[in-house]
Amino acid sequence: MEPAAETSPRVQKSDEEWRRQLSPEEYAVLRQAATERPFTGEYTDTKTEGVYECRACGAELFRSDTKFESHCGWPSFYDPADSDAVILRQDRSMGMVRTEVLCAACHSHLGHVFEGEGYPTPTDQRYCINSVALRLTPAGS
Q: 5: pLDDT confidence band, cut at 50, 70 and 90?
């Protein structure tokens, strides 16, 4: 399945509104494409069953049954919850070519996706996502 095509975000807010809603760290990652330090995020080693939503807009992004231990320092998933949940965009920052992962609903930066690293997952993909970009809703909540 291909990720959602990049169109105008369904959730649109002014920069000022995002700054009021998000903490400085959340704003830096979600709205300015920063990266949290490895092994510091609250969901890096979480095994709780549930749904991971975008911290900015609440859209469902990933489910715990696709989360795996990659030992890379950030939560890793092998597939989004829905093919339309994320947008993939080429990222040429930092002197390399990577694939950026954005929330399809609000176009917030989530992290990057990598392929062909040899993880024993069904997709051979690693969605490397910043914890601060996510909010976990435990199953049964």
A: low
- For 81-113, what is each residue's pLDDT tens digit? 988 999 999 988 878 889 999 999 999 999 999
Residue 26 lies in a domain: yes
CA-atom Rg of the chain in angstroms: 14
| Total domains, the chain | 1
Element (H, E) at 77: strand 76-77
Active site residues: 128
Would you say residue 5 lies in a domain? Answer: no
Write the CATH number for 98: 2.170.150.20
